[in-house]
Specification:
Blueprint lengths: L3 H14 L10 H5 L5 E5 L35 E6 L20 E2 L5 E4 L3 E4 L5 H12 L8 E7 L4 E6 L5 E4 L7 H7 L12 E5 L2 E5 L1 H7 L13 E4 L6 E6 L5 E4 L7 H7 L8 E13 L2 E7 L4 H7 L9 E6 L5 H21 L2
Helix pairs in contact: 1-8
């Protein structure tokens, strides 16, 4: 929120210096006398549906993800080989020795030594492939051997989870696939400042941005990809996403939009509502810059319950400026002419400080 102080100072000056007297409703003639690059939209039950969803909807990730996870043994893994009916070929674990300590460690050349048959290639193979190889070679010494190969210790492959998680760590990959959500959960979950919408996955020379919130809140399956060995997951700090509430409201303030969608009615009620003595409930305006140089002004009349209900469907966007004018009424042009320069200045300052 590094732009908070500068932006809020400008907007506070706007609230203090602008008369803001407006005649309602804003007519087409009045709109035509306004600057060409300003569009005025009066919110009503017919058009509110166009503004009920955040413009910054969830994006779909494009991280290459295998349809099925198949773990391949690597250097450093420890294997247990169990030969049924032949305890002499199975190193038993006991009170003083774990299964990992009694297993066969895959050496730097990718092999491990097994009695009778010698070196066995393990690196790059699934446990089932190693079992088939050992079974075939051991059959020369034992009739129809029955055996099982298990990974006792997963040391060769892992992912790193860093950034705004509670317990940044290295997470070993196992024979069970690990998804992005599972990796973040294993790292303690996101901190309060974690940005779930912009999680990055560094894979080799490629970097992918994943809207994890799109999976958690909207069920977009591809936003929860299966991770691969060597992936580095980073949860960035959430950037400030703010709207500004000013004018004749009880508690003018900055509205945080970074954690959840906030509607116009929510913003007004959370800050104590309109000033009953000074505010004109017909003059609730939202200034929004949709593209450089062009501003859209939304007008909402909240003097009736219908207006407040319509406001519950109007979703605010970052950098929106909400301004409530005061009584008595005056010309629309006077108010809009006084507000627009400061709104543009605020937008410019906010963009420059990102």
């Amino acid at each position: 929120m590094k732009s908070y102080g500068v932006v809020f100072a400008c907007l506070f000056a706007l609230a203090a210096c602008t008369d803001g007297f407006v005649s309602f409703p804003v007519t087409k003639e009045q709109q035509q006398r306004t600057e060409e690059n300003v569009e005025i939209i009066r919110l009503d039950a017919k058009n509110i549906g166009s503004f009920s969803s955040p413009a910054r909807g969830h994006s779909r990730a494009s991280v290459p993800s295998p349809a099925q996870w198949d773990y391949k043994v690597g250097v450093g893994d420890t294997l247990n080989v169990i030969v049924f009916d032949h305890p002499e070929l199975t190193l038993p674990a006991g009170p003083q020795r774990s299964a990992e300590e009694t297993g066969f460690r895959v050496q730097s050349d990718g092999t491990f030594f097994y009695p009778f048959i010698g070196q066995v290639q393990a690196r790059g193979r699934a446990p089932e492939e190693i079992r088939a190889d050992v079974t075939k070679r051991l059959a020369e010494f034992i009739p129809s051997p029955q055996l099982e190969v298990r990974v006792a210790s997963f040391n060769s492959q892992s992912v790193v989870v860093s950034g705004e998680v509670k317990q940044p760590s290295r997470l070993p990959l196992t024979t069970v696939e690990t998804t992005l959500v599972e990796a973040v959960t294993a790292a303690g979950g996101l901190t309060e400042d974690g940005d779930a919408r912009n999680v990055s996955i560094q894979r080799g020379g490629s970097r992918y941005t994943v809207d994890l919130a799109g999976y958690l809140s909207a069920g977009i399956g591809q936003n929860n990809p299966i991770l691969r060995a060597g992936d580095v997951v980073n949860v960035p700090r959430r950037r400030a996403e703010e709207a500004y509430l000013l004018g004749q409201v009880r508690k003018p303030d900055v509205i945080d939009l970074s954690q959840e969608p906030v509607t116009l009615t929510q913003a007004l009620t959370r800050q104590g509502g309109l000033d009953e003595v000074r505010a004109d409930a017909r003059g609730v305006f939202v200034f929004r810059q949709r593209e450089p140089g062009k501003i859209t002004v939304f007008q909402l009349e909240t003097s009736s319950p219908t207006g407040m209900l319509i406001g519950t469907r109007f979703v605010l966007e970052p950098k929106d400026v909400i301004y409530i004018v005061r009584s008595p009424l005056q010309r629309w042009n006077d108010a809009i002419s006084g507000l627009l320069p400061t709104v543009r200045a605020v937008t410019a300052i906010d963009s420059a400080t990102e």
